[in-house]
Design brief:
The complex is a heterodimer of chains A (about 1200) and B (about 200).
Chain A: E1 13-22, E2 52-58, E3 63-75, E4 82-87, E5 92-95, H1 100-121, H2 127-137, H3 147-151, H4 154-163, H5 165-168, H6 171-179, H7 206-222, E6 236-238, E7 246-248, H8 266-271, H9 278-282, E8 284-286, E9 293-295, E10 305-306, E11 315-316, H10 318-325, H11 330-341, E12 369-371, E13 378-380, E14 414-415, E15 420-421, E16 427-428, E17 432-433, H12 456-470, H13 476-485, H14 495-499, H15 510-528, H16 531-535, H17 539-550, H18 572-590, H19 595-613, H20 618-624, H21 627-643, H22 645-649, E18 660-661, H23 663-673, E19 682-685, H24 692-704, E20 709-714, E21 724-726, E22 744-747, H25 757-767, E23 773-777, H26 785-788, E24 791-797, E25 806-812, E26 818-823, E27 829-834, H27 835-848, H28 852-867, H29 884-894, H30 902-910, H31 916-925, H32 929-947, H33 951-962, H34 977-980, H35 986-996, H36 1006-1015, H37 1020-1033, H38 1035-1044, H39 1048-1056, H40 1068-1082, E28 1093-1094, H41 1107-1137, H42 1140-1143, H43 1147-1154, H44 1161-1176, H45 1178-1188, H46 1213-1222
Parallel strand pairs in A: 1-5, 19-20, 19-22, 20-21, 22-23
Antiparallel strand pairs in A: 1-2, 2-3, 3-4, 4-5, 6-7, 8-9, 10-11, 12-13, 14-15, 16-17, 18-25, 23-27, 24-27, 25-26, 26-28
Helix pairs in contact in A: 1-2, 7-12, 7-21, 10-11, 12-13, 12-18, 12-21, 13-15, 19-20, 23-24, 28-30, 28-41, 29-30, 29-31, 29-37, 29-41, 31-32, 32-36, 32-37, 32-38, 33-39, 33-41, 35-36, 35-39, 35-40, 35-45, 36-37, 36-38, 36-39, 36-40, 37-38, 37-40, 39-40, 39-41, 40-41, 43-45, 44-45
Chain B: H1 2-20, E1 21-27, H2 33-41, E2 46-52, E3 63-69, H3 72-84, E4 97-100, H4 127-183, H5 186-194
Classes of the chains: A alpha+beta (about 1200), B alpha+beta (about 200).
């Protein structure tokens, strides 16, 4: 490089253990300095804004230097990239190894430079190899290098590419620059992006992201990231017991700090499923105050007790704790001592600052705690005594005593050599005192917790979820890679493969990580695209044959993985190893939220609230359970709910599959749409499915004499080829379609995605073409087009797609009929017009009275509203469950006497919509199974009338009763009903009910509720609804239910609808229906695609016309609830005893069926559920139902037999489904 | 002549059928014909579904079927789609595999014209005897090895199922505990008291 005269001629010195700081002595990245390219223009060196100083040691550590620097440069011409900085004295200094703690700050720059270096030398390298190389180089980093790191230095990269020809050739860089990725592609593993497009939704929801990061932080707090022996980080093993400590497991992981470690070998650690330290294992813990060992066994004479705080984990003698908590007041101390000894929960002194006695506030840096690791002492950052210095402030003279989260108290003398106090503090039972730390020559360098810890914990959890529940491929590969892509895509799961080893348990070395990854990668690619297998379908056989004939002796020892045939079979040991590792991974991942955690946290929450009820201060409560912990609880809940989604939602889980709009609906849409189409237009269906819409439009338009062109896209080939292109809509470019857009009409039914994420994507893409019209079937939470672009809403029809408007292609139910589903919340049909065409289109709409449905609906609704308190859930009852509605109406009108609730009755009577035909239908259905329930129930209603209770009062009472927690206040307890309830799947309902009534009878099952209600008196309408529900589930069942049905579910359902403040407690049926509706509507939608629908194709032919259902449903829903509730409550008790068999929710099988769960889940869960019944309420019951489902009619409405692939040897496949039914 | 020509036409018809047929593997034993029909009906018209019976070996293992489509193009489409995307039928343990069919897969195939199969007993002294018995032994060995592998696989599946079950239960338990504390109002109540906003899906 050119060096001016001013620059020194001597060889550049090399600095090691360096770091850069600004004038305030805060660490700062040197990339803020101006960069010098080869041309070395030393122009604006002087006018920098930062005063940056370099601190480090030169001459092999002999001297330390402290110089101001003004520029930096990097040199890619050698084998390794070289970074140098220019000091103020115009002398270049090469940078060697940075100080550990500083590494984090310059991570991105280092990665960028290395990336450029690699790119320069390997211009043809693909992105993948670049990342591989970077990962290897930066293997010690917590986080794999990813695009995020480069994003920070886009400018730098850009300039470098311009200036250096060799870089300009590199494809990867060029692509990268073009791409200009956004920052914050959190957790998107680079490799993972190549994964199949099977991912249903790509949620980069802010909430979720926040969740993720917060979680990781929270979880970090739960588990110590530094070794309890030596206070150093690195490869540590976390104890899963209540002590919340971590240790260096092997001598080598503790090498750096001369830690004595636990003494395991690497192998042992790998094999270990779960680690419990000796203290936890033998239930003997040291009192954190005095250090003596004592028994912590609650059941047999505990001497030491754990602090109630969920994240604490320290044990104390009652005496020690009490003394510390009440230093001055002896009397109080004695009292407290007694209480603690009696088992009452207490918070140890750690949670209040020594100096000012207040709690920590994690959000304010001043009020963050520095907690001593050897004794129960904490300080606010601002209260820290001067002698205790943080590492980054410490220089050579003062020994750092405080690191980011550690703080040995000054009481504890720090031994210079090892940098910690004497390490004799840990005592294990039977192990005796630990030997004191050996003296080490080198100075200890603590590895501080990196600034942004994305703890693998969150990923582990994801790992579990994916692995367990994606269930598609039970191969090693799939577990790690593909599983994440499958059914459940919780945000950013792909990192699992990369970070899979940074599990809570172990942070494995990179090489091993890599091998696993490679294996899994290859395996997964094998699995996902079994093209390789297919191309040569005998390949596996051949290989096996070859291997076996060659080493026939070893054949038996091998365990070739059928799918992993790509892996070299001649390395069986590797496979076994990998297998084990993977199993361990799964196990670990599964336990990332351990049961103890959960229990501990929940305990803390309860204690905290109890304290607050006892009028303790908020401070005290916070000491027990910090706000973050509370947040954690919710996050866990959300996460676990996603994991368990297949089981909780059962049949509705099919919503993640493709849903095609039914042909009838398409025809209706065509009937409406053709008015807006002009000659010469192009109609584009960007997600055509079975490609029926186009054909129908074509036919219709030809009839009307308009000639139009069509284009249809979908990723999966459809049967019908009409103008079909097998393409991903996202890849279609604007030049492929007419430019102007005034001839473009686009639609129709894109995949929804979680929170309409996918739908939004499709729409955004479509908007690029500026079509004049967009006709969309999308969930209501989709972003409105008038907010995004100049579009106007011509009309919107909420009810159009209520009822069974969609079907699952390629699926049959038990009766071998096409499976349909209806939505809990029917997606509206929107027609959006570009603004310059709006007037015209609105005129057309006006002329033809689009959408006609809306008017009808509004009429009906108005009538309803008169009679009852409007329920917010109205819209949500669009649900197909509506089929019940019509029934309701007539029924109600016919049986006014049955409803106790006058209001309701009136309401019912008032309903104009009652179709006597419906009623007839109902009556006539009596004998028939599907609807017979209603009628038969109706008959039974007589019996129950008495029990019905008094409408409101009972309702209220029931609700109160139902709600244990807030008896008088059900209104207040706003049930998340619309959200949470899924009418149809009792599962959902039950789950909700569960929430409200932990003890609700288990039969929350929607169906059961129906049953119950039907029993009680109910009016037809309810029955209708119930029926509907049944329909979902299985009409045939209803009969059987009738007998036994009690209202348990009714109650549970009811409880959910607290806010359905219906005063009419009409038939339980009604309420059921409402509930059901409510359930359905509320349901579960939030997190799920709104397409979740219950199943049951069976009833199709028996159902009453759907059209009105939607409308009426809503109406009915309102009043049904109360009644349902009544019933539920009334009959709860007896109901509780009812075996779940009745419930036989169709859902039962459904969830099992659809889910990846192996069949054996069903029986097992059932067992579980049984025991849980009493405690948990509906949710378990749902699962339970599966097991106890009684012989429902064969048309049980579950479409899939439970998987039967991995049966126990004793379960022949054929028996499986039977087993379910008969259990 | 006649017989040969009919044999040839038969065979030609058969070959044409083979081209249109898809061989599906890894089917759950619970899959029925209508399931297959509907499932593959997404991609084209299914003319015939025939399961390949498993006369030997354990009963509860994946099955296979031959599905005859309307035209070779559809068969190709089916194979392509199935290999590209994991395709589940009647449950989710693992996806099915699809290949183009081959003649040998059909056990009811017509005799290949121009081919005659003869059987005869082989005498011990016949040089072919050795060869024949070797082949026989080898085939048996293959069968045994096959069986062994199969059992290994089943064992693994079993293990995996157990594991998944445990995980499920464990997760469920955790979930229920958390759900309880949330749903009975404790946690939200505490959140209110702390003045915190919680995101509860």
């Amino acid at each position: 490089m050119a060096s001016s005269d001013e620059e020194a001629d001597t060889l550049p010195e090399s600095v090691s253990t360096y770091h850069f700081a600004n004038d305030k002595d805060e660490p700062i990245s040197f990339s803020l300095l101006p960069i010098r390219w080869r041309e070395s223009k030393n122009l604006d060196d002087e006018k920098k804004n930062h005063m940056i100083f370099l601190k480090g040691s030169v001459d092999n550590g002999l001297r330390t230097i402290y110089k101001q620097v003004i520029a930096w440069k990097f040199d890619l011409s050698n084998k390794t990239p070289q970074i140098s900085v220019l000091t103020k004295e115009k002398c270049w200094m090469e940078l060697g190894k940075p100080r550990k703690s500083y590494e984090i700050i310059i991570r991105t720059v280092l990665i960028t430079v290395h990336c450029l270096h690699f790119a320069r030398w390997n211009p043809e390298a693909s992105g993948k190899s670049v990342w591989d190389y970077l990962s290897k180089t930066f293997s010690l980093y917590e986080h794999r290098p990813s695009q995020n790191d480069l994003v920070d230095h886009l400018d730098l990269i850009g300039e470098a590419v311009q200036k250096e020809n060799s870089l300009a050739k590199c494809k990867f860089l060029l692509n990268f620059l073009e791409e200009k990725p956004r920052k914050k592609m959190s957790d998107e593993d680079f490799q993972a992006t190549t994964m199949s497009a099977f991912i249903v939704d790509d949620v980069e929801d802010d909430n979720f992201e926040d969740l993720e990061e917060d979680e990781s932080n929270d979880e970090d707090e739960l588990f110590d990231s530094v070794c309890a022996f030596c206070d150093n980080g690195g490869n540590i093993l976390c104890c899963e017991g209540s002590c919340l400590r971590s240790f260096h497991a092997t001598a080598e992981s503790g090498e750096e700090s001369a830690c004595e470690s636990l003494g395991f070998t690497n192998r042992e650690v790998e094999v270990m499923q779960s680690f419990f330290c000796k203290n936890c294992k033998f239930k003997q813990h040291q009192c954190f105050a005095c250090g003596k060992l004592g028994s912590s066994d609650k059941f047999s004479g505990a001497e030491v007790f754990r602090c109630a705080n969920a994240t604490c984990g320290h044990f104390y003698h009652p005496h020690c704790a009490a003394t510390l908590l009440h230093r001055e007041d002896k009397v109080a101390a004695e009292e407290l001592q007694k209480k603690i000894a009696a088992g009452e929960s207490f918070t140890c002194p750690i949670h209040k600052c020594c100096i000012c006695k207040l709690v920590e506030d994690k959000k304010k840096s001043d009020l963050q705690f520095a907690v001593c690791r050897r004794c129960p002492t904490s300080y606010h950052k601002k209260c820290l005594p001067k002698e205790i210095v943080f590492e980054n402030e410490a220089d050579d003279d003062t020994i750092a005593r405080a690191w980011q989260n550690l703080l040995p108290n000054r009481k504890h003398n720090i031994i210079e050599g090892i940098g910690t106090p004497v390490r004799d503090h840990i005592r294990f039972p039977d192990v005796g005192e630990k030997k004191s730390a050996a003296e080490a020559q080198k100075r200890r360098q603590t590895s501080e917790r990196p600034a942004n810890v994305e703890e693998g914990l969150s990923k582990k959890r994801r790992l579990t979820s994916e692995e367990s529940y994606s269930g598609t491929f039970h191969t090693k590969a799939s577990k790690e890679m593909s599983s994440s892509a499958k059914i459940i895509k919780i945000t950013t799961s792909e990192k699992i493969s990369s970070e899979s080893n940074s599990l809570r348990k172990m942070r494995m070395n990179n090489p091993s990580r890599k091998t696993v990854r490679e294996n899994t990668k290859s395996g997964s690619s094998e699995v996902e695209r079994s093209t390789t297998a297919n191309e040569n379908k005998t390949s596996l056989g051949d290989k096996l044959y070859a291997s076996m004939t060659n080493d026939s002796g070893n054949a038996k020892l091998r365990k070739p993985d059928v799918f992993g045939s790509e892996l070299d079979i001649s390395l069986p040991s590797l496979d076994a190893d990998t297998e084990r590792r993977l199993l361990a991974l799964v196990k670990e991942a599964a336990s990332s939220i351990t049961l103890e955690d959960v229990e501990g946290t929940v305990e803390a929450v309860r204690t905290a609230i109890k304290k607050l009820e006892e009028k303790c201060s908020i401070e005290d409560a916070k000491a027990v359970c910090e706000p973050d912990v509370l947040n954690q609880v919710f996050k866990w809940k959300n996460k676990l709910r996603v994991y368990l989604a297949p089981f909780l939602y059962g049949m509705r889980y099919t919503s993640f599959g493709r849903h095609f709009t039914k042909v009838e609906k398409l025809m209706e849409i065509a009937d409406i749409l053709h008015w807006y189409v002009e000659n010469g237009d192009m109609i584009v269906d960007f997600c055509c499915g079975a490609n029926d819409f186009s054909c129908i439009m074509n036919k219709k338009l030809e009839e009307m004499g308009k000639r139009c062109s069509y284009k249809n896209y979908d990723v999966i080939q459809s049967k019908n080829d009409f103008n079909f292109e097998k393409r991903d809509w996202m890849t279609v470019c604007p030049d492929e379609l007419p430019k102007k857009g005034s001839q473009l009409i686009m639609g129709l039914n894109p995949p929804f995605g979680v929170k309409a994420a996918l739908a939004n994507k499709f729409i955004d893409r479509a908007l690029q073409f500026k079509p004049k019209l967009l006709i969309l079937i999308v969930p209501p939470e989709t972003e409105r087009l008038d907010k995004k672009k100049p579009y106007d809403l011509v009309w919107k029809d909420d009810r159009f797609l209520s009822g069974k408007s969609f079907y699952l292609p390629g699926s049959v139910n038990e009766n071998e009929k096409q499976m349909d589903q209806w939505n809990v919340t029917a997606p509206p049909l929107y027609l959006w017009s570009r603004q310059d065409w709006s007037a015209k289109h609105k005129a057309i709409a006006q002329k033809h009275g689009h959408p006609f449905r809306q008017q009808e609906i509004s009429n009906l609704e108005k009538k309803h509203r008169e009679t009852k308190t409007p329920a917010p859930v109205n819209d949500q009852y669009n649900n197909a469950g509506a089929s019940l509605l019509p029934n309701y109406i007539p029924l109600q009108s016919k049986r006014p006497e049955e409803s106790n609730c006058g209001i309701v009755n009136d309401g019912h009577k008032g309903r104009p919509g009652c179709n006597s035909s419906d009623r007839e239908g109902q009556d006539s259905h009596c004998p028939r199974k599907s609807h017979s329930d209603e009628t038969s129930r109706k008959k039974r209603q007589g019996e129950k009338t008495v029990e019905r209770g008094t409408g409101e009062k009972s309702l209220g009472g029931r609700q109160n009763g139902g709600k244990k927690t807030s008896p008088s206040d059900y209104k207040g307890m706003h049930r998340p009903s619309p959200r949470n309830i899924d009418g149809r799947s009792s599962l959902e309902g039950s789950s909700r009910s569960v929430e409200k009534q932990p003890q609700a009878p288990r039969n929350v099952d929607g169906r059961s509720s129906l049953e119950g209600s039907s029993r009680s008196v109910e009016k037809q309408p309810q029955a209708g609804i119930g029926r509907n529900c049944y329909q979902h589930l299985d009409p045939s069942l209803s009969d059987s239910y009738i007998q036994q049905h009690r209202t348990p579910y009714g109650r549970s359902l009811v409880s959910n609808h607290d806010d359905m403040n219906r005063r009419h407690s009409t038939n339980i049926h009604e309420s059921y229906s409402l509930d059901i509706h409510g359930l359905s509507s509320g349901g579960y939608m939030e997190a799920q695609s709104t397409r979740c629908v219950t199943t049951n194709g069976i009833e199709l032919d028996r159902q009453l016309p759907f059209h009105h259902y939607g409308q009426q449903g809503a109406d009915f829903a309102q009043w049904n609830y109360p009644s349902g509730r009544d019933l539920g409550l009334g009959h709860m008790e007896p109901a509780s005893a009812i075996p779940y068999g009745h419930l036989g929710l169709a859902a039962e099988p459904s969830y099992m069926m659809n889910v990846s769960a192996m069949q054996r889940y069903a029986p097992r869960l059932d067992e579980l559920n049984h025991t849980r019944m009493s405690n948990l309420g509906p949710e378990p019951s749902m699962l339970n139902r599966n097991g106890s489902y009684d012989p429902r009619a064969p048309g049980a409405g579950y479409q899939f037999d439970s998987m039967g692939f991995a049966p126990g040897p004793q379960h022949p496949y054929s028996h499986h489904s039977a087993g379910w039914l008969n259990e | 002549m006649d017989s040969t020509s009919t044999a040839e036409t038969d065979y030609a018809v058969f070959l044409e059928k083979v081209k249109r047929t898809v061989y599906i593997d890894n089917l759950s034993p619970q899959v029925t014909e209508s399931v297959v029909r509907t499932a593959l009906g997404q991609f084209g018209t299914v003319k015939n579904v025939q399961f390949i019976p498993n006369y030997t070996g354990p009963k509860n293992i994946p099955c296979c079927a031959l599905v005859e489509m309307e035209c070779p193009r559809q068969a190709k489409a089916v194979v392509l789609e199935i290999t590209q995307f994991p395709f589940m039928m009647s449950g989710m343990p693992r996806p099915v595999r699809a290949f183009r069919a081959e003649e040998e897969m059909f056990d009811d195939r017509p005799i290949k014209p121009g081919r005659r199969i003869q059987c005869r007993w082989v005498d011990r002294k016949d040089p072919d005897f050795e060869v024949a018995s070797k082949i026989k032994r080898l085939v048996r060995k293959h069968a045994a090895e096959d069986l062994f592998l199969l059992q290994q696989q089943l064992a693994q599946e079993e293990k995996l199922a157990k594991q998944q079950d445990e995980t499920l239960k464990a997760n469920y338990k955790k979930f229920s505990i958390i759900d309880n504390v949330v749903s009975d109002g404790t946690a939200p109540g505490l959140a209110k008291l702390y003045n915190m906003k919680v995101f509860d899906a």
